[in-house]
Write a structure and sequence with these properties.
566 residues, Immunoglobulin-like, TIM Barrel, glycosidase, GH39_cat, Glyco_hydro_39, signal, GH
């Protein structure tokens, strides 16, 4: 009996060893990715080249200017910037989720006083860097609010009770005064920046009017849109005006609001002209994921964000006269609150490390594919993540930099900035396509995949190893990339990498002991670590028959960019 028992233990042990070996062998099996630069599938429009934030006054502060300069420099085409609260009346100091410009006040007799000093300071910062505004026409000045008191929010990160939506979120007490304010703003912009420049901007009305940001009805928003669009077009007939910037259309309330707005634009009675329809030059909505904590680890939900995008595209595509208008996903992020720190919300711990970076790579690739699927015109997907002035180092806000030091996620945008021309066909033994990821997210095997582009003098391939679960203690993926369609002859290959050891200021900061008061020498090292780094030295390849094969190991949440120059 004892012998049988020992034999059973031995057999179980042997079976376990065999299983481990089989798993090891399966992990060693390469993931094959095929890139054919001869087969173009669509334009590599810089949809990733837009940023936004709640706090407009950060724009012209020290770290704000530094980050904007870096964002402007990473793209060969103009970067667009969207900020909240450009018309909010001054009501105290700058704070999280708050800002003001004092653009509109009234004298004691109710006569308008326009003051564009702060708005100009914000837009000047963009224009000086070759950037362009997505000029958000919001929120309601105190003198025009139909319920002005209390006016200011009292939001605090992590607080159980916050008053966010106050007097600035109400409809105007006088639509004509509102329209004149917008008319004067556009006229002033033309005088300051020139007609041609302002015609290249995107003017949009409000933010998420289907929830608390708008304390009026759907119909009141539509009325405000008609007055706003008429004012913009009177001031500058070729100006671009759009909306409605709803939350994710995957929610029933958001879908209903978006459809009501588009129905009005197509066939409703205009509140200003009395004619049918309203001017609309582009369509806007938001899309967000939703991370949670599972067994003390962050678990992302990219599928939710992609379902929001998919539903928004489906809705737009259902309007024949509107389906080819530019679409701006006005906020396109892993979750909803940029100003909610990791300290207060543990599920936001993905933000400092490479998980945010790999999520960004995988998500943007699928935005292109969803736009192709619905045959819609995706112009831009705005990353709602900028910087937060004078906050602790690596506090876990959804930002691109901390105290002037770039975080790993910004280096993925630098990678995208190197990808130009047209997208090309990607195939192979890949676990996910865009529809499976949309419907299931990434819960089983990792999403090891790629996006590739071909330009006149260069071809690029971005490869990522993404998973919704933030577990880095897993084997590296063995990736084999088979490339076709390269020019015959000498080609220069640069291999860039974002992982735990490369292009990663967070790892370096932790290695320093996580200082909250780093020395100037430490800051210099952090700034250097925050830049996009080569994984290997540049290498000249001799290409025969237009083909080459690249083999590499890619760690979980790592991203590689291969740039072939010729």
């Amino acid at each position: 009996m004892k012998t049988k028992f020992l034999l059973s233990i031995y057999l179980a042990f042997c079976l376990q060893i065999i299983t481990i070996n089989l798993n090891a062998q399966s992990n060693e099996a390469p993931i094959s990715i095929n890139i054919d630069f001869n087969k173009e599938v669509g334009e590599m429009n810089p949809i990733w080249g837009s940023w936004g934030y709640d706090e407009p006054n950060y724009t012209y502060m020290k770290d704000g200017k530094k980050l904007l300069s870096e964002i402007a420099d990473l793209s060969a085409v103009p970067v667009y910037v969207r900020a909240h609260s450009l018309l909010v009346t001054h009501e105290g100091d700058i704070a999280l989720k708050w800002g003001s410009t004092n653009a509109y006040t009234e004298d004691e007799n109710g006569n308008p006083i326009y003051d564009w000093t702060v708005v100009d300071k914000i837009f000047d910062t963009y224009i000086e860097r070759g950037m362009k505004p997505i000029a958000q026409i919001a929120f309601m000045p105190k003198a025009l609010s139909s319920k002005p008191e209390p006016y200011r929010n009292d939001w605090i990160s992590g607080a159980k009770y916050n008053r966010i939506f106050a007097g600035w979120s109400y409809p105007p007490n006088d639509y004509n005064k509102w329209a004149e304010l917008i008319y004067q703003w556009v006229i002033h912009s033309v005088e300051r920046y020139g007609k041609e420049e302002v015609e290249s901007w995107y003017w949009e009305l409000w933010n998420e009017p289907n929830i608390g940001y708008w304390q009026g009805t759907t119909e009141e928003y539509i009325k405000l849109y008609d007055y706003t669009a008429d004012a913009v077009k009177r001031a500058l007939p070729l100006a671009k005006i759009g909306g409605p910037e709803t939350t994710g259309p995957g929610g029933k309330g958001a879908e209903k609001f978006l459809r009501a707005f588009l129905d009005h634009v197509v066939s409703g009675k205009n509140y200003v002209t009395g004619k049918t329809g309203s001017p609309l030059d582009f369509i806007t909505f938001h899309a967000k994921g939703k991370p949670t904590m599972v067994d003390s680890l962050v678990q992302m939900n990219m599928g939710k964000q992609l379902r929001d995008i998919s539903k928004g595209f489906e809705i737009v595509a259902s309007y024949p006269t509107l389906k080819h208008l530019p679409i701006i996903i006005g906020e396109s992020d892993p979750e909803g609150c940029a100003a909610c720190s990791e300290n207060d919300y543990p599920q936001n711990a993905y933000r400092n490390n490479t998980m945010y970076a790999s999520y960004t790579a995988a998500a943007f690739a699928r935005k292109y594919e969803l736009a192709d699927h619905f045959d819609v015109n995706l112009f831009s997907a705005v990353t709602w993540g900028f910087e937060f002035e004078d906050q602790p180092w690596f506090a876990g806000f959804r930002d691109m930099a901390t105290n002037g030091v770039d975080k790993p996620v910004l280096n993925v945008f630098r990678m995208f900035g190197l990808m130009q021309g047209n997208r090309v066909k990607v195939s192979g033994n890949l676990e996910y396509d865009y529809l499976k990821l949309r419907d299931e997210s990434v819960r089983g095997n990792p999403d090891v995949n790629a996006i590739a582009a071909k330009a006149k003098n260069a071809s690029t391939i971005m490869v990522w190893n993404y998973h919704d679960n933030n577990n880095l203690n897993v084997p590296d993926a063995h990736v084999e990339i088979k490339v076709e369609g390269l020019p015959v002859g000498k080609v220069l290959l640069n291999h860039y990498r974002v992982d735990q050891e490369h292009s990663n200021s967070f790892t370096v900061w932790k290695g320093m002991g996580s200082p909250q008061d780093p020395t100037l020498e430490q800051i210099s090292k952090l700034e250097k670590a925050g830049q996009l780094q080569l994984y290997t030295s540049p290498k000249w390849l001799t290409i025969e028959k237009g083909e080459t094969t690249i083999k590499m190991k890619l760690p979980r949440q790592g991203i590689s960019l291969f740039q072939f120059s010729y």
